[in-house]
Amino acid sequence: MAYQVKLAVFEGPFDLLFHLIEKEEIDIYDIPIAKLTSGYLEYLESLKELDVEKASEFLIMASTLIDIKTRMLLPAPPLNEIDEPEEDPREELVRRLLLYKEFKKIAEVLKNKEEAENKIYTRMAEEMTIKVDGVSLLDGLSLAKLYKTFLELMESSEEEDETQELQREKVSVRERISAILHAIEEHSQVEFTHLFPRTASRHLIIVTFIGLLELIKVGYVRVSQDALFDKIIISRRIEENTELSDEEMDWLSDEDV
Amino acid sequence: MKMSNEKNWSEAEVVGALEALIFASTEPISSCKLAQILEIHEEVVKKGLCHIKEKYDEDVRGLQLRKLAGGYQISTKPQYAPYIEKLFITPRVSSLSSAALETLAIIAFKEPITKAEIEEIRGVKVDSVLSTLTERGLIEDVGRKDTIGRPLLYGTTPEFLKYFGFKNSQELSQIYQLSKGEKREEQGE
User: Fold this and answer.
1) What distance lies between CA A186 and its chain's CA centroid?
2) B64 to chain A: closest CA residue
């Protein structure tokens, strides 16, 4: 228990070190490492229940401190001409402490700014689309939209009565492709949602959708949408080879569901 | 009223149009954008903005015009916060934890920065803090570092400037300079 209560105060090992440094009025540029280490370990020992995840962060620092302490106790190896004079083992620690302190200060500034900002209110966003100059928001988005509309359709048809006998429908991709083509021939274009009757079963919807994807893939139809959330229009692509041959139809529909 | 093609607006008209635009826009709006919409010179916009600010700064007004995240925004004055708090049933989103603030401070001045680099400075794991900050839209990943493992790099968002009420990124970097200056003083002692 004591562990958790106390830890809430310290953000991490550096935070604890700073606390000790301030409490003992330690000169950060000449840290009495033995004193700091024992203070640090004392604190760790006072923590009865160790939360492994959190404690490990504190333990790493403990081992660093002990390592520094050890290195300072050991006599420095005699210098020969190749060796550079060994740096103070505390140097790295001090550098990191100072860096941490810098950001802790900035965090303090941010906290004050946040408090001040919480006293200021602005209008809340309304559901409004801001104009994007001249750029069509739909560029490259038509398939995703198509997919979304498909999902919506799936949802609306799912609301139908759930308890019923399931009978396997026999609808082939080929049939649906023919139906789509027929609809396009008749009206020169057809709206995406009209391809799926309200009462369409999931099976029919899937097969129709696959059929449509196939037609798009072979470039036989084009799918367009004029504005965001507008109707998706499927029309025939105006190109020379207008008729699908039987082989093409077969190839298109060979992935029967 | 011929709005768009006539550029010889009276000053009062400019001020009115500017105020309407800034009010209608819930996000801070830049003087450049304002000038574009009204088809007037940016200098004229800035003059108009100063005029609005002066008017708002008079004691009797409850609103203020602020420079925020590189744009302008109309908001309430801080002294009226207690009353507004009564008006709203739901309180604001909770303030950030000190772990979140420390992490943000590091990202703001070291960006782009990886998770490991942040952890090196803070001495603790920052996974959950990073996801909280990302969720709140204050930071985002800005690419990958070209080292082993190609770790994600994090940076702050414009929302970050707004959240803390910074005029622009220059004001932010001034804070950094300031804290560095203080440090030097301490060392000089």
Assistant:
1) 46
2) A120
DSSP A131: P
Q: Closest approach of chain B CAs to the CA of A58, in angstroms?
A: 8
Nearest-CA distance B106 → chain A (Å): 6
What b-and-e string marks burial along A117-128, b requiring 16 or more CB atoms within 10 Å of the CB?
bbbbbbeeeeee
Which residues of chain A have a CB within 8 Å of the CB of B74?
Answer: 122-123
Q: Are B124 and A13 a contacting pair, CB within 8 Å?
A: yes
pTM for the whole structure: 0.60
Q: State pLDDT tens for residues B84-124.
A: 888 877 666 678 998 999 999 999 999 899 999 999 999 88
Phi, psi of A26, rounded to the nearest 5 degrees: -85, 140
Total domains present in chain A: 2
Q: Which residue ranges in chain A fall short of pLDDT 70?
A: 1-9, 47-54, 77-86, 125-142, 157-164, 166-169, 238-257
Chain A hits for B23, CB-CB cut-off 8 Å, are 123
Instruction: Tell me the CA distances in angstroms from A43 to A2, A6, A70, one per residue in order.
Output: 11, 9, 20
- Answer whether residue B84 is part of any domain: no
Q: How far apart are CA A70 and CA A72, in angstroms?
A: 5
**Cβ contact, residue pair B84, A121, below 8 Å:** yes
- Could A113 and B166 be called an inter-chain contact, meaning their C-beta atoms sit closer than 8 Å? yes
d(CA A82, CA A78): 11
Tell me how far apart the alpha carbons of residues B177 and B187 are, in angstroms, rounded to a whole number. Answer: 15
B180 touches chain A (CB under 8 A): yes
What is the phi/psi pair of residue A122, to 5°?
A: -125, 170
Statement to judge: residues B59 and B109 lie in one domain: no
Q: Which domain holds residue B71?
A: 11-77
Range of the domain at A150: 142-158+169-252
A120 and B92 within 8 Å at the Cβ level: the answer is: no
pLDDT in tens, A142-190: 677 778 878 888 877 666 556 667 666 677 888 888 888 888 888 888 8
Q: Which residue of A has its CA nearest to B75?
A: A122
Q: Are residues B111 and B57 in the same domain?
A: no
Return the CATH number at A231.
1.10.10.580
B122 is a domain residue: yes
Residue A167, chain B, CB below 8 Å: the answer is: no
Complex ipTM over 0.85: no
